[in-house]
Fold this sequence. Notes:
This protein is α/β, with parallel strands linked by helices. Among the domains are: 124 residues, Alpha Horseshoe (Serine Threonine Protein Phosphatase 5, Tetratricopeptide repeat); 195 residues, Rossmann fold, CATH 3.40.50.150. Helices cover 61% and strands 13% of the residues. Helix 22 links the parallel strand 2 and strand 3.
Amino acid sequence: MRLSRKARRKAAPHKKKRWRQKEEALLEQAYTLHRQGRIAEAAEVYESFLARHPRHGEALGNFALLHHSQGRVDRAVALYEQAVQASPRLHHLYYHLGNGLRQLGRPQQAIVAYEGALAHGAADKSIQLALALARIEAGQRARARTSLEEIVQRQPTDSEARYQLGLLLFEEQEYEAARAAFDQVLAVQPDYVDACFNLALCYKALRQPAQALTALNEAARLDCRDADILYNIGVLHREQGNVAAAEQAFLQALDLDARNGICLTDLAILYHAEDRLEEAVAMYERALECGYQPDSARHMLAALRGETTGAAPLEHVRHLFDNYADTFDASLVDDLHYRVPEQLAECFRQRRGEAGPAAAGLDLGCGTGLAGRAFQGMVRRFVGVDLSERMLLQAAARGVYDEVHCADIIAFMQGNAALYDLILATDVFVYLGALHDFFRQVETLLAPGGSLLFSVESCSRGYCLRQSGRYAHAPDYIADLLAGHGLAVQHRQATGIRKERGEWIPGEIYMVRRVSGA
């Protein structure tokens, strides 16, 4: 039967209703498949639905979540962006968009997304926390700190926000405030392992090793399968001189993670210090097999096997002093009785006489500025150069240099056209075996009549790599280099360079002068 015009007009809404029901059923099918983990089937249904409804915000958002869950973050972000344009009031979509942008390393855009969620009425603390973390990643640390402080002020029992505040305070080197934050986290959530671990790091930074060890032991009790916790227990024991306990902790960590390169290396260092050289070699070999700091491992293996190389690898030296920076002065001066900078400064003062300060000085391998401090007032303009950025931070804080440069000293010398009246190289040659390149550059940088002051550890012939991983140089080797580069000895003195296992390491200090016209 043919419908009349009037009847057809009445039937149209029923068709539209049936069509809408069919589309809603299709979308519900996609959701159901998605919830059941039938990802490929769900994706097919989403695509079918979105082909007919390309601006359906909820469908776009859920399809984005599907891609996100499968690690396809680029595709997910593109869909989230379409979703928030289509349905700007769905504030949860901004949150997921922000999370995706952070994963892609785009924190500034993530901040905009999270702020969009809050602007559209979201009040979820997870969005506020995510916004604070995005601000940290974007370098907006002050604003991030304010955000985190506001969250914990409103919700004092919010462990995650307070934990993140603790991390931020630790990175800002506000160790006491960070300690208090982690303590408060643990008061609310005593089984928060990471808070225990970071509390230990705070105590370590505050020079309270007993409390640090207590916190780490509690972390190990909460999670006895965490190799990093056991490794750090070993580090604390080693620093306190508890060799047996340190070895046990390192070995327990390696039982859980046999390829833990830093643990293998620290155990090698422990064995080396205890003269258990075969065991030290075995650990360095394992670290090398794992690919952990291979240059350092090869260098120390050469030292332990009695092989001599031309120089310590730059990465080995950089890593050594970056790790050493915080305790360098106390260790070198108090524990090893290192006095070379003062000895060289006194030598320079006596031979300089009434001549007054040198116009320009260059401190090569300046470290934390120990030599710079010893020569303070003897140089009008002083430049410091070191390979370790963390050592230079300490040197800059001392204020003894007019400039500091983070660079390999040979590379710096090669790229420098200035002339210096004074060049220092204290405790530098112990990381350089062959010294020809060094003296070749000194010849171009040292002004006529200018002075070079340096120290060496001594050996009988040429140069050698000692078991300590440091180089020693023979007097004849140094004499030949000086003669070959126009340098005359003003002062040479045998001395103890530093103590090693309670014994003085024999060496020499030199003050040499560039002969005019040389």
